[in-house]
Design brief:
Elements lengths: L3 H6 L22 E5 L13 E2 L3 H8 L1 H8 L4 E4 L3 E2 L2 E2 L4 H11 L5 E3 L16 H11 L10 H13 L5 H18 L18 H14 L1 E5 L16 E5 L6 H5 L20 H8 L5 E5 L4 H7 L3 E7 L19 H9 L4 E6 L15 E6 L6 H7 L53
Helix pairs in contact: 4-5, 5-6, 8-13, 10-13
Length: 438
């Protein structure tokens, strides 16, 4: 994933020493690698929690991407709210100063997370002077302080004047921040470059996003065997049912950290194509589409449809709001699946930011598609459901049977997933000889 860095900053010159931040020009931006380090390994996956692992495990599992990022000239590194074996990362001098700045030779600047030093203590902000001292001495260079920057300045100034914080630590921080600002040319041209502003939301960008949707869909089930494949769906059915809370909701398709921090519901917050819109644009003009978010079984039986597409999943979330110990499909999604799929041939499309519990529903559904968070271009889902393009996506992570198995990763001695890492059924576009293979 560190390949995004040259995309943001530009390709690094071959003769640039390791660790030097690099931004190629005004039409590029400084990249940030985060959250340093181990935030993906916290106990029970709880946000801002404790990562319990020995040093070898930390270095072999969680650290390699930071080394790659530094080799690619990343400008900044953000410290994690989480802890490593009980020590808050915002107070971890060994990993921030000794390892990141020393061993890895990172020469950009280290930035805190939002109110990151406040959370060094429990409760938050309980001893702010201690938090300032711990964060500065850990090696953090820039602090994200949305509400109380004057307090921070006063406290740190006092520490420096009393020689509790050495001037060399201040010089290190200032030198690193200036290095990045000089590299970006901010002193010569401090305002943002608007060269590409007309391209925001352009058709070319939407076409690329739609392609990304098509390629990231993962087909998890397609009938009971190759001869009984449910997908691709015929476009010329007389009447079809589209159901589910996520079928006609751009906000749900986008998820958290997009339209707003925790995401939003509805279609009035951004421009795009819902999955329902995409289906409507794809089927034959004579095909009647019935839409009902959560129909009863009797309604489905009486609707006389050829098949149904059920689009359900998780509601948007970000950070702690996404913590879940059961990883279930949001209500009324499970009842929608049951009501529809017990009455008619059905394809279920999951809109979620991660694997969720689906085992109980597998026997009921004819096909199951993981659509992840497709964003604004829901047409990309319809492109593949109806066979204009084939399914090619593979699981980027293991899909569990039950949450009791977690954490579970490929290579574990006890590895018994519902779908393994790399799983994905494939189909050929309609018009070619259709295949159904693993």
């Amino acid at each position: 994933m560190t390949e995004i860095i040259p995309g943001l900053q530009g390709d690094i010159p071959s003769d640039l020493p390791k660790g030097i931040p690099y931004v190629a020009g005004r039409d590029k931006v400084a990249a940030c690698a985060k959250h340093y380090v181990g935030d993906g390994g916290t106990t029970r996956g709880i946000n801002e929690n404790n990562t319990v692992i020995d040093r070898h495990g930390l270095m072999s599992i969680h650290m390699p991407a930071y080394n790659d990022a530094i080799i690619k000239g990343v400008s900044t590194v953000m410290v994690s709210y989480s802890s490593w074996n009980g020590l808050k990362m915002h107070a971890n001098r060994d990993l921030v100063t000794n390892f990141l700045k020393g061993t890895l030779k990172f020469r950009g600047f280290v930035i805190s997370d939002w109110q990151g030093i406040d959370r060094i203590t429990t409760p938050e902000h309980a001893n702010y002077s201690y938090s300032v001292l711990a964060g500065v001495n850990a090696g953090i260079d820039m602090f994200m302080l949305p509400f109380n920057h004057t307090d921070f300045i006063d406290i740190l100034t006092d520490f420096v004047e009393r020689k509790i914080v050495p001037m060399s630590r201040i010089d290190d921080a200032v030198r690193r921040i200036l290095r990045v600002k000089f590299t970006m040319g901010l002193f010569e041209k401090p305002m943002a470059d608007q060269t590409f502003i007309d391209q925001l939301g352009s058709q070319a960008h939407r076409d690329l996003a739609r392609e990304a949707v098509r390629k990231s869909l993962v087909l998890l089930k397609n009938g009971e065997n190759a001869d009984g494949a449910a997908l691709p769906l015929p476009k010329n059915a007389a009447r079809i049912l589209v159901a589910g809370t996520h079928a006609n909701n751009l906000g749900y398709q986008c998820g958290g950290w997009t339209i707003a921090w925790q995401g939003l519901s509805g279609n009035n917050n951004t421009v795009g194509t819902t999955i329902l819109n995409g289906i409507s644009a794809t089927v034959d003009s004579d095909t009647e589409i019935i839409f009902s978010e959560n129909p009863s079984m009797d309604y489905v039986k009486a609707s006389n449809v050829s098949y149904a597409i059920v689009v359900v999943g998780e509601q948007p979330y970000a950070e702690t709001q996404g913590d879940s110990l059961n990883l279930t499909i949001s209500e009324p999604g499970p009842s929608t699946i049951t009501n529809v799929c017990a009455a008619v041939k059905c394809v279920v499309v999951l809109v979620s930011g991660r694997p969720v519990t689906v085992g109980p529903y597998l026997p009921q559904v004819d096909a199951l598609v993981a659509a992840w968070l497709p964003g604004t271009e829901g047409q990309g889902v319809a492109d593949v459901l109806f066979g204009d393009y084939g399914f090619t996506g593979r699981l980027p992570r293991t899909w569990f049977k039950t949450v009791d198995q977690l954490p579970m990763n490929f290579g574990d001695e006890q590895y018994d997933p519902l779908f393994p890492l790399g799983f994905g059924l494939t189909t050929e576009p309609v018009g070619s000889s259709k295949k159904f293979i693993l």
